[in-house]
Amino acid sequence: MKIRAAVARAREPFRIEEVELDGPRADEVLVEVEACGICHTDLSAKDHDYGTPLPAVLGHEGVGRIVALGDGVTRFAVGERVVMSFGACGRCTSCASEAPAYCRHSRDFNLFGRRLDGSSPASQAGLPLTGHFFGQSAFASHAIAAAHNLVSLGDDLPGPLMTSLGCGVQTGAGAVVNVLRAEPDDTIGVFGCGTVGLAAIMAARIVGCERIVAVDVRAGRLDTARALGATEVVDSAQGDLVAALKRLGGLTLAFDNTGRPEVIEAAYGALRPRGRIVLAGLSARGASLTLDLNRLMASGRSLRGTIEGDADPRTFIPRLYDWYRRGELPLEQLVTTYPFEQINEAAADMLAGRVIKPVLRMT
């Protein structure tokens, strides 16, 4: 079938073009896309040579309605509304242990944007396009999605606000709840207050953390962080971050989504004995940390990374729905919507910090 898709080429604006999309294979569905969030990962895949073959149809925070089922799909029905999350095979050891973010095939699905046999459902003028990015490629009017990626979405839930539950909000909230396992007596520092960081702040408030410290370089983001639950803020553009953190008296937990080594080292240095830091930011290629290994050993601190907040979307996204319905996850404070045709404007606004989470409306 012929669809409209935003085709990505390296360091060029997106172009909305006609693309040919195959029907769903076994364990796949065809989704008419309602909305899709834009994430920094999409722009890194397009412009920073992280390995995604171009040209490509990107987009990995899609919401839509199923219009066709492939063979073997029994959990969903035609007409059902869904959130599309990241790609995973559903069969490997990690998937079987409810850790699909660490699927043995995650690079194929989520970075290289291909099925396990190397194929793509999308083509243009007879030539293949990367069209299975994060198991969906949702910058399009329609997407072929792996059924294992999908989570049912009630008709009462606003599609544009639900898009980032598939990645950004899931990552931030999951890092706090699933990885750091924050508790009421914790003092948590959140470094970077975009979608992921603000989701972490909301989750820290929901679990009742005693102190929630938001760190960013934009005063407006820090204002939003306060509104969403931060008890203290640090504007790291206005002075020495290490000194500012020292004045706080130490952190029990830290979450970084900036990917900047100097920020991570400052956050690590602010941890109390046995403190824990989790990293979710995409760093520049070749970036590294310098840590005092004796201090690491003697303090009992720990540092680890996370993908998608260690979430299993099938159980964690419904939990996020519940928080939203109870008014505890005010996603409307993050989202700005744009018509699909304004994808380049939306991306530019995000990069410039004018908006937090741009969401494209396809319908």
UniProtKB/TrEMBL annotation:
InterPro entries: ADH-like_C (IPR013149), ADH-like_N (IPR013154), ADH_Zn_CS (IPR002328), ER (IPR020843), GroES-like_sf (IPR011032), NAD(P)-bd_dom_sf (IPR036291)
Cofactor(s) named in the record: Zn(2+)
Classification via Pfam families: ADH_N, ADH_zinc_N
Ranges for domain Enoyl reductase (ER): 9-360
Keywords recorded for this protein, A-Z: Metal-binding, Oxidoreductase, Zinc
Family statement: Belongs to the zinc-containing alcohol dehydrogenase family.
Protein name, entry field: NAD(P)-dependent alcohol dehydrogenase
